[in-house]
């Protein structure tokens, strides 16, 4: 295979407030790394505020580092995750995405596979709208956006989260629901599928 001397690097980029989206991100990373020759790079974004005062330290106190422009350039595929905010991604993730003009101008994400994931407090709290709206900037970047096929059995049996548009989690009104078995299986399947497609694209025809 051409160009596969180095691992296939999948960027799992997320924002979380109560940890639910982070749980999905970790499951997606597990799915990525279940594919031989693939590695997951977990990154997050800092919270934002409407005031001019700094809200977050330059380096997170815990968890993965904040994403940098170089992470986008270096990845072979992207999983983008955010909690739902009125049917859209959270402001912190939107702030980061709005700042990717240079990546768009250089075309560095064109042709790379991507997927999205989310978490909501209620079952019908805008999961699908959030996933669909998160896809829009990825299309503008020329990425190859993927969902979850119904060949994944958990997609038909789940009574919590999980959609054909991407992995999702029902966190509950207090954000404390653990990731269900179906949600975990679908997140891992999404990461695995992203990694497999990225490898095939790297290998060429």
Question: What's the arrangement of secondary structure elements?
Answer:
Elements: E1 8-14, H1 20-33, E2 38-44, H2 69-74, E3 77-85, E4 88-89, H3 91-98, H4 101-106, E5 113-120, H5 127-140, E6 144-145, H6 154-157, E7 167-170, H7 181-203
Parallel strand pairs: 1-2, 1-3, 3-5, 5-6, 5-7
Antiparallel strand pairs: 3-4
Helix pairs in contact: 1-7
Residues in β-strands, percent: 15-25%
Oligomer: single chain
Overall geometry comes to: globular
CATH C-level class: Alpha Beta
Unreliable stretches, pLDDT < 50, 5 or more residues? none
Return the structural class. Answer: alpha/beta
Report on this structure:
- It is a single chain.
- The protein has seven helices and seven strands; from the N terminus they run βαβαββααβαβαβα.
- The model has no long low-confidence stretch (mean pLDDT 92).
- The longest helix is centred in the last third of the chain and has 23 residues, at 181-203.
- The chain has helices spanning 20-33, 69-74, 91-98, 101-106, 127-140, 154-157, 181-203, and strands at 8-14, 38-44, 77-85, 88-89, 113-120, 144-145, 167-170.
- The radius of gyration is 16 Å and the shape is globular.
- With 205 residues, the chain is α/β, with parallel strands linked by helices.
- Strands 1, 2, 3, 4, 5, 6 and 7 form a seven-stranded mixed β-sheet that branches.
- It has one domain: Rossmann fold, CATH 3.40.50.360.
- Helix 1 (20-33) crosses helix 7.
Characteristic terms for this protein:
single chain, 205 residues, alpha/beta, Rossmann fold, seven-stranded mixed β-sheet, 7 strands, globular
């Amino acid at each position: 295979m051409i160009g596969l001397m180095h691992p296939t690097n999948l960027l799992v980029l997320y924002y979380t407030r109560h940890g639910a989206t982070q749980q999905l991100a970790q499951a997606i990373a597990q799915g990525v790394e279940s594919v031989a020759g693939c590695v997951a790079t977990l990154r997050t974004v800092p919270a934002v505020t409407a005031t001019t005062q700094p809200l977050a330290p330059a380096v997170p106190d815990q968890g993965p580092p904040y994403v940098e422009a170089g992470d986008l350039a270096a990845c072979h595929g992207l999983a983008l995750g955010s909690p739902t905010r009125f049917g859209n991604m959270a402001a912190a993730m939107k702030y980061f995405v709005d700042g990717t003009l240079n990546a768009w101008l250089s075309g560095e994400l064109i042709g790379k596979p991507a997927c999205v994931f989310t978490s909501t407090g209620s079952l019908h709290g805008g999961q699908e709208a959030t996933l669909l709206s998160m896809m829009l900037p990825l299309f503008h970047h020329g990425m190859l956006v993927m969902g979850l096929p119904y060949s994944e059995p958990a997609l038909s049996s789940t009574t919590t989260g999980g959609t054909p548009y991407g992995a999702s989690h029902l966190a509950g009104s207090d954000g404390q629901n653990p990731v269900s078995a179906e949600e975990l299986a679908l997140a891992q399947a999404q990461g695995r599928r992203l990694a497999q497609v990225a490898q095939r694209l790297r290998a060429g025809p």
